[in-house]
């Protein structure tokens, strides 16, 4: 789970995983999230424009033959496509391994579970279902009234006030959460751009002859835990190294030598786990975390 804001960095949060590891994360700021949404909205609008052109070009003959009924069919197809895009575009991309839409990926953001656990499908569905209430409902009301012959001034005021409350809601909480994030138990964090370094793997590889981990012991964790372990080794905090070494050895059933150091054990396990994950990746198997079977 997340704790208070870290000192000296207003966007950094202490993020404690279910294993008890304190993994520092940086939340996405309001500007990044707004830019990501505008990029995604531009993609959706672009798709709708392309669809409109296709329907216009291919539907000319049908409209001429069917008259008003042909126009209604094209309108229904366009509305169905718009409904599908606005409801499933965000959900589909955030359910992927990247947990991010194209806009979020371009801005270096991804969705994560606030409790430190695995990002669940129901959380993604919930956070995106709320967007219909936050943005599209007031716009739909205005559109429907306009189609009926005009929009009263008070409808404009109420609709914009409704949308404004939800749109600007992230500015009034420290974690920049949308209402959908609050309900779904998620938040948007910055994706670490730092890649795993080969020298760290090489450091652990020198100890592999001493540590003969079995396949089952290595399959206890996935790519997410590998990244966490890299961060822990890089920070080299003694207490954290000791705690994590005890947790890993207990989970995989490894009997530790009383003379070995925590860092030596973790470095060896890091190198072995990385090698195992890379081998599986070559066979087309990508294990995202320990829950991914």
Automatic annotation (TrEMBL):
Keyword tags: Membrane, Transmembrane, Transmembrane helix
Predominant place of localization: membrane
Subcellular location as annotated: Membrane
Residues that span the membrane, as ranges: 34-57, 69-89, 153-172
Protein's membrane topology: Multi-pass membrane protein
Residues covered by the RDD domain: 29-184
A single cellular component GO annotation: membrane
Keyword Transmembrane helix among UniProt keywords: yes
Pfam families recorded: RDD
PANTHER family: SLR0254 PROTEIN
Protein name as catalogued: Putative RDD family membrane protein YckC
Species for this entry: Brevundimonas lenta
